[in-house]
Amino acid sequence: WTYVTNMNSSTGQSWQVPGSATVSGTADIEVPAGNFADCYRVEYTAMGSSAPGLIEWWAEDFGVCVLMVDYSNYTGIETRALESYSMD
To answer: Could you give the CA distance from residue 22 to residue 62 in angstroms, rounded to a whole number?
Structure first.
């Protein structure tokens, strides 16, 4: 699918970045919150880029993103992993 991200700078400038997202497969993912089987790997690529800037792994049974790797962060690669969850 395609999407548009609205960007805003600290100087008040704003612009839009179009991109596309693709489900590229599934994988078993282990994070501090536990093991999640058959997570969907979703790759987000900005238009004009040859590689994904963001990759997320989604656990279908829980409807949450359990792991995210952001390659487009200005300070370097940022990884976020699910620490805990509750089904309450």
So the answer is: 20
